[in-house]
Design a protein that fits this description.
two-stranded antiparallel sheet; disulfide bond; 8 strands; Low-density Lipoprotein Receptor; binds calcium ion
């Protein structure tokens, strides 16, 4: 009991004396967490409550108080919580969901509109390397799926197998061309997209240092 009381007393004294505090090259967040001093006012929320970015000079401030870089405005990424930085932009390409994206994001292999509008399924995009386009639809399949020996339908209506020199009885519909497969594709795309955003943020951060 005596030991517990002493330990508790030591903690109270340490806090009262400001120990442990932050080092000379550190900044203390309002919750007491220390971060590197040069993370203060660097346009990134490093403290849990964003206190390192509150009292900073700022050229472009979101209505929510967040400070953003000039080139974050109308860059296709929503940086302000209310989308202020992406409102009233001249739009190269507007997704049906209202999002504005730069023209070089269309047909770049990333799903940027919520309904995949900017991808090969919707736009007349060229198919990337090692893939070919299905006749009359915007769908790319790997070259090896074109006229494959098993006769599997990879394009809608089996158009990838329609003019191949093989017996018609070997034609069979692929069980891979299903909604289930489309869903797993979408799931992968969302993960890729999250990864893209993270990389984009890291890129910005390194370039702003
Ligand atoms: Ca910061
Ligand atoms: Ca933005
Ligand atoms: Ca895209
Ligand atoms: Ca095929």
């Amino acid at each position: 009991m005596l030991k517990v009381t002493f330990t508790l007393l030591s903690v109270i004294v340490a806090v009262a004396l400001g120990q442990p505090g932050c080092g000379p090259d550190e900044y203390m967040c309002s919750d007491g967490i220390c971060i590197p001093a040069n993370w203060e006012c660097d346009r990134w929320d490093d403290c849990a409550d964003g206190s390192d970015e509150v009292n900073c000079a700022c050229e472009h401030r979101c209505p929510d108080g967040k400070c953003i870089e000039e080139n974050w405005i109308c860059d296709g990424w929503t940086d302000c919580s209310d989308g202020w930085d992406e409102a009233n932009c001249t739009c190269d390409f507007q997704c049906p969901d209202g999002r504005c994206i730069p023209s070089h994001w269309v047909c770049d292999g990333w799903n940027d509109c919520s309904d995949s509008w900017d991808t090969v399924d919707e736009q007349d995009c060229p198919c990337p390397g090692e893939t070919v386009k299905c006749p009359n639809v915007n769908k790319c399949i790997p070259i090896w799926q074109w006229c494959d020996a098993d006769g599997i339908w990879d394009c809608p209506e089996g158009t990838d197998q329609a003019n191949c020199t093989m017996p018609s009885h070997s034609m069979k519909k692929s069980n891979t061309f299903t909604h289930h497969d489309d869903e797993s594709l979408n799931k992968l795309t969302k993960e890729d997209q999250a990864q893209r955003k993270r990389l984009n943020q890291m890129y910005r951060r390194f370039n702003s240092q």
